[in-house]
Structures are given as C-alpha cells and as structure tokens.
Amino acid sequence: MKTIFIFTFTVFSTLFSLGQTTEISNVTLQNYINVHGKKMELNGAGVRTKYFLPMYVSSLYLQDKSSNPNDVLYNVKHKVVQLDIISDFVTKERIEETVKEGFEYFRNSLEIDDEINMFLGVFKDEVVNGDKFQFVAEDTLCRIIKNNNELLVIDNINFQKALFSIWLGNKPINDDLKEEMLGK
C-alpha cells in the first residue's frame, strides 16, 4: 500500500511540475514568481544579442499578461524585468554602457540624473555569467536586486518608467526582444 501511495504521489508531482518552468538559451525561468505577496506570471522572454553574441535573457513578469507596451509602462503598477546573464562577454563596463545608452533618451526630459547615477552604482561590482538582476516595480518604487540581494530602492515613478522603457518603450534596446517580452 505504501508503495502505491509513493508511486501515485511521484506521478502527480511530476505531472504538476510540468509546465512550471520555461527554458530559453539554457536559462530556466519560473512561469510564476512571488514578489512581496503578489503572484507574477511570465509574460514573455527573449535573448538580448549584441554583435551577434547572446548577452542575457530578459524576461517580463506581470500579475496579468499584457501585450500592450503602453499599458505595461504606464498602467501596470507591479512588474518585474529579470536579466539572466548568459555570456562572459557581459562585464560591468559593458552593461553600464548599455544602460547609459538606454537612459539617454530620458536624461534631459525627466530630470532623473541623480537616480540614474545611483542605479549605475549597482554595477560597481563585476558582472559575470550566471548573475541574475531583477528590476521590481511596485507602485512608485523600483527595487534593484542582484542574485537575490536587494541593492537599491529608488522611489521615483519617472525613473521606473525610464528603466522599463529600455526594453518596452518607443525606442527599445532591441525591437525583437521587446516583442518577445510582450509575448507576441
């Protein structure tokens, strides 16, 4: 009887776990994550490449899936962009350069230079293959997490929108990646 119970439990556990993750470029993404008591669902993900080299897997988590970038940027109060570094080509200098490029569009219009400089400080330590960054938006807050350690919290909705616009805005870092993150 005990053997039947263990077998049944194993079968149901295996069936339940199927579909709980998504794999992209050898990175296993959870289909659901819990962020401060809120269940977030994987909306979409893709690989950021530069000079034909894969750099990182970028994924977007939302409470309710959406393919509308303006809705995600301006109406969704809780969202997560996760970057899983998948290349030795990514260094703190290269990621800092990429982030600066992404913010360039907003530097003068939103007056968020102080916040951008604080954010760039997150990359003072070396960035290596296997690192995971999460940018967590909660109302007006933006939490920056590296490898499950919260490094910085910025309370500025304009900074938050500019940060998420790097991937989802009108001038994203990569159009194909934007579409993949929006589940298109």
Automatic annotation (TrEMBL):
Name of the molecule in the record: Chalcone isomerase family protein
Coiled coil regions, renumbered to chain: none
**Cross-referenced InterPro entries, in alphabetical order?**
Chalcone_isomerase (IPR016087), Chalcone_isomerase_3-sand (IPR016088), Chalcone_isomerase_sf (IPR036298)
Species in which this protein is naturally found: Flammeovirga yaeyamensis
Task: Give the highest taxon in the source lineage.
Answer: Bacteria
Its signal peptide is none
Quote the Gene3D superfamilies the UniProt record gives: 3.50.70.10
Give residue ranges for domain Chalcone isomerase.
22-183
Q: Does the keyword Isomerase apply?
A: yes
Q: Which UniProt keywords apply?
A: Isomerase
List the Gene Ontology MF annotations in alphabetical order.
intramolecular lyase activity
